[in-house]
Inverse folding.
């Protein structure tokens, strides 16, 4: 009889897998998990000032039980306030209970909680719907209603106040039809994390979601873009748009990532005073702009706080004998000066001059290039910028 090597090999492989599974499941290892904190026997008139959420627990168990421990409620972390009914600081050790065999608690952190008990306050707050996800492509949110819209919230005064926003999350991801579901109110901190030291009455509300066929709409403000730079000593003070916003439409998921509409560039070259312009916006991909793509923009220019602006009338020296100045274009020059606040406060047209040296200028129109050394200014003051850069002076014979 021939020996069946193929059957023998299959048997050996299966036996090896079985042995590996048995050894793996009997093998113990340690891992860490966050266990939700349960508060019991807290006086009804008191509230915990700290936001106590989880206890970091290091447990040792069979590998087979890791998933159970991470996804189930087989470990309790309890803070028992039995006998504690006074305001102020308290030190409380958590009580840990394990509801699964062959599980050992190796360590936990913190070992002791420093807890401040404060008076519990009660206020009424209006709930805000917080949709999670986006309706299916081609569908959009029509409206979200919450019943009841106003609930009572209980907790420490530092958290519970009428201005505190209370939210109800509702999953609308890939939905095509209107629906209702229960939701739990929550208050969040500045990082958007749920606070555990508050409670609500009622603890659950009904959220009604109306979904309609069609695209979503979003009204957005503008993000200006610029080319070139302002002259030295000037800065952008205020930018005003008319209209102040435009509306686009598209799938809700696409609109969610769009926070503003980017304008075509505004040219700042040579700008030293307020000006107006017209711009349009770049319409984001896969969206449609509603209305006319034309925006009036008003830009207000300011001067840096350590600078001062003066408008000067030029004076003339070394005019050729027999000639006189009959016209100047433009008639004034604007100069930006820098210095200490004391020095800037002392500046005036008597101690700050623009001296135009007309040596060699002939009868007719003469173009004079302005340079910083033409300004006569007090010591400790510097010329930052000036405009215009050139002047046209007309000389005629007397």
């Amino acid at each position: 009889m021939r020996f069946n090597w193929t059957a023998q090999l299959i048997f050996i492989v299966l036996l090896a897998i079985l042995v590996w599974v048995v050894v793996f499941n009997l093998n113990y290892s340690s891992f860490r998990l966050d266990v939700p904190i349960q508060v019991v026997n807290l006086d009804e008139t008191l509230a915990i000032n700290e936001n106590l959420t989880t206890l970091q627990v290091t447990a040792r168990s069979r590998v087979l039980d890791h998933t159970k421990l991470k996804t189930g409620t087989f470990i309790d972390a309890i803070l028992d306030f039995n006998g504690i009914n006074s305001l102020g600081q308290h030190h409380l050790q958590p009580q840990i209970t394990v509801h699964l065999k062959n599980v050992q608690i190796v360590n936990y952190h913190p070992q002791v909680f420093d807890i401040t008990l404060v008076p519990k306050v009660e206020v009424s707050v209006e709930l805000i719907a917080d949709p999670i996800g986006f309706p299916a492509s081609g569908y959009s949110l029509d409206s979200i209603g919450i019943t009841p819209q106003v609930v009572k919230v209980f907790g420490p005064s530092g958290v519970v106040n009428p201005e505190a926003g209370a939210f109800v999350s509702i999953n609308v991801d890939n939905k095509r039809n209107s629906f209702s579901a229960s939701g739990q109110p929550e208050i969040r901190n500045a990082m958007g994390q749920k606070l555990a030291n508050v409670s609500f009455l009622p603890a659950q509300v009904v959220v009604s979601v109306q979904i309609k066929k069609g695209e979503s709409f979003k009204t957005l403000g503008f993000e200006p873009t610029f080319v070139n730079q302002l002259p030295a000593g000037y800065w952008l003070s205020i930018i005003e748009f008319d209209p102040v916003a435009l509306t686009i439409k598209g799938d809700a998921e696409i609109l969610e990532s769009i926070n503003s509409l980017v304008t075509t560039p505004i040219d700042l070259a040579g700008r030293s005073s307020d000006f107006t312009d017209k711009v349009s916006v770049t319409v984001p991909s896969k969206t449609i702009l509603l209305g006319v793509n034309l925006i009036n923009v008003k830009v207000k220019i300011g001067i840096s706080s350590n600078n001062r602006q003066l408008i000067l009338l030029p004076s003339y020296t070394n005019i050729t004998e027999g000639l006189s100045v009959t016209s100047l274009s433009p008639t004034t020059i604007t100069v930006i000066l820098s210095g200490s606040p004391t020095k800037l406060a002392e500046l005036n047209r008597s101690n700050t001059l623009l001296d135009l040296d007309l040596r060699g200028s002939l009868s007719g129109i003469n173009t004079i290039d302005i340079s910083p050394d033409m300004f006569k200014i007090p010591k400790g003051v510097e010329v930052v910028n000036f405009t215009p850069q050139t002047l046209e002076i007309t000389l005629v014979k007397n």
